[in-house]
Amino acid sequence: MNIVVCVKYVPDATADRSFDSSDSTVDREGVDGLLSELDEYAVEQALQVAEENDGEVTVLTVGPADAADAVRKALQMGADKGVHVEDDDIAGSDAVATSLILAKALGTLEYDLVFFGMSSTDGTMGVVPTMVAERLGLPAVTYGSEITVDGSTVTVRRDGDVATETITATAPAVVSVTDQSGEPRYPSFKGIMAAKKKPVEDLTLSDLGIEASEVGLDAAWTKVLSFAPRPPRTAGEIVTDEGDGGVKLAEFLASKKFV
Questions:
Q1: Which pTM value belongs to this model?
Q2: Mean pLDDT of 49-56
């Protein structure tokens, strides 16, 4: 069984993120980047399925040169090989363009299943898996909390707020998993050393038959028109309880429209 995991290189969510004043896109140079935490769950589930079904895992990413770090982390976790689509014209691409690039890249690979995380930790849209499935003409089974594969049948348990659904699909299929699907493994020293010898294929837009005009900031369906830094935190208000603390608290909450 061949499995492809699509992952994203994102700015560290714990860092002080901002926008680039030149084009109003996320500033990716002024903050450290890493493999999206939610994509680690997809890598973990893909590895588990591959181990149970004598499979091979390929990790696919789209992004700048530094995005190779996301591929490397997945290889250290146990993936067998990587594919990195890098091109200057990709910068500023939205979800629609990203889904196009991923679908074209997947067209160069052999796969039975395509795994995604539930969303990226920077855009947090969660729409790319379904967009890719639509472009490829494949069933999409999203937000899985538990994944099992039996032959060509993939079964996904989806846990909602008020109910749990069990959904099946026939491979090839696109699957996205949540952060409830199982704790991702940490790369071992052996895995870190082995990753250095694993192959990573580099692709450009021309390799995929994509025109520059189809991707990038100019082709994006949405744009940031303006932005401002978050205002500094102000000092809190101290309420002295003179027997009416509860009333004062209720009045404060009402003034802020919390109640």
A1: 0.84
A2: 92
